[in-house]
Amino acid sequence: MAGGAQHGSGAMSADRGAGDAALLKVLVVLGALLAVWPVRASAGAPGAGIDGDVAVAHVSGMLAGYGAVVLVALMSRWPVIEQAVGVDELARWHARGGRLVMALIAVHACAAVAVWTRVRGIDARSAVVEVVRMPGLAAAVLAVGLLVAVAVTSARRARRRIRYETWHGIHLVSYLAVAAAFVHQLAGPDMAGHRVVQVGWSLLYTAVFALVVQYRVLVPVRAAMRHRLRVAAVVAEGAGTVSITVAGDGLDELRAQPGQYFRWRFLTPDTWRSAHPFSLSAPPLQDSFRLTVSARGDGTHALQSVRPGTRVVAEGPYGILTERRRTRRDVVLIAGGIGIAPMRALFETLSIPPGGDVLLLYRTADAGRAPLGDELDGLARRAGARLHYLTRPGGGELTAASLLGRVPDLVNRDVFVCGPPEMTRALLADLTRAGLPRAQLHAEGYQHGGR
């Protein structure tokens, strides 16, 4: 920790981040308006109009296609979007957007069947059979089936019951689903025969999928070849937790900051298929990074015994849980479980100006056996910062009321939070109701501390 830092730049960063997120929302809405414009072109001659159920079918279909490609863009790992919004917020947008797209698909399908029922004068069941057998509808049926599989496995209850590797593999088929939907849309009545619209729609999809290839494939491959990452050391931190030091060449070029995370792929027979998001649990060095992993699933259990020399591929850095978001002199860091990983890196590096205070609240089952506890105790003594362990039951409560009891000037501080999703969501909501400005609340979910 250092002294005498000025935090005006942090406030500007937080404001800029909020402004970038707002601008992105405006652009998405404008894109949606452009997406439904072809419906007018497909309505026929000027003034011919288009009846209600036909309009619903066309508009919902175009919005579903547009929404699907927006969802792909949000998860493309394009740094421009991730740095503007933050990965946790993007995940929330993606979840809400996914539900909206599925609703639009359902509306589109029902409206299309209703139109065909009326036009053909047949019952709904016969209309469904005829519609599905239409030329070009096979791609649409495939897309819907794949998206339903993704949606079902993404539901919170189902997500808890399946392995991360299984969920990840199923989720990858969403790209195939979006591609199949694109084929269906291109041949649909809103685009067929309208060359400008077809070209524009094709360019949109091409640009978004190019982002996916660039940032999910090419950038990690180039980084692996350039930095030659490998496991240098594995240190046990307690039951089911290890710290892994990853060494490499020219790591300072990545400009990683304390509080950020990478998606790590350890190239062993048991772990190479999945990239896991783990935070840096110590300040990044020129030739090494350190991450701390808690065994919470098959993949992270396997990493408990990873061997030095194992090659590693890393994507990143990602995340906004850094000092750049700081807006106040005094800071409270709140960690739950292995969410301590990014908090430990911040605890070492956050500046403490004269008269300032940095307080770390660490919720853990056992203060005497808490992962990284010895390091944190030493850092607190050397820097003059404060460290409090919140052990359960009793002292582990995390609410606005309990925090105000410990930190009376909480509303005048920045609050950084990393812990289990349920804890993080509940605490942020409670702090907001208690009057803390959103600009002073900085959080990312537990999954970045280990999965």
Walk across the major sheet and give the strand order.
Answer: 9-8-7-10-11
Shape: elongated
Query: How does the helix and strand content classify structurally?
Result: alpha/beta
Number of H/I helices? 14
Order of H and E elements: HHHHHHHHHEEEEEHEEHEHEHEHE
Spatial gap, N to C terminus: 29 Å
Overall domain count: 3
Sheet-strand content, in percent, reads 15-25%
Helix content: 40-55%
Radius of gyration: 25 Å
Q: What are the segments in which pLDDT stays under 50 over at least 5 consecutive residues? A: 2-16, 43-49, 447-451
Overview of the structural elements:
It is a multi-pass membrane protein. The protein is built from 14 helices and eleven strands. With 451 residues, the protein is an alpha/beta fold. It folds into three domains: 211 residues; 90 residues, Elongation Factor Tu (Ef-tu), domain 3; 126 residues, 3-Layer(aba) Sandwich (Rossmann fold). The chain has a five-stranded parallel beta sheet, with helices on both faces. A three-stranded antiparallel beta sheet has the order 1-2-5. The longest helix has 34 residues. It is elongated. The N terminus and C terminus are likely disordered.
